[in-house]
Amino acid sequence: MFSASTIGSGSNEISPIMTQTQREALFDLLSLSIYADAHVSLAEEDLLKQAFVKKGWKSEYPKNLFIDESFARAREAADSDEAMFDYLNERAALFTSKGVQQEACDILKAILEVDGETAEENEFYSLFVQALPMLK
């Protein structure tokens, strides 16, 4: 699992419990999160590319192409509050177990903390947590 310290130290292992679809959804959310404060930090974007997708990618779809398309989707979703909320909810709905939800929260929080959290990033994180499916 990532923490702010393990991401910074070069750890890039994603838990094997996360499916490829969940990995892709998490990357989409991470891409969107860097637009949350209308300040795209190169540190956030670089960390996202390096730390997250390096390992655990189990798709025939090329990583680099997915990354580029994910950033494009995030930019489009960030154009309006409604689009961002819908995008966030669609992806959050895919995290259907307690372990995967915790891992997604930890990774997202660590990425947001890289350049110091803003009020907008805190709000984004809170919206993500609220959007996660309730577990029985």
UniProtKB/TrEMBL annotation:
SUPFAM superfamilies: TerB-like. InterPro entries: TerB-like. This is Co-chaperone DjlA N-terminal domain-containing protein. The lineage of its organism: Bacteria, Pseudomonadati, Verrucomicrobiota, Verrucomicrobiia, Verrucomicrobiales.
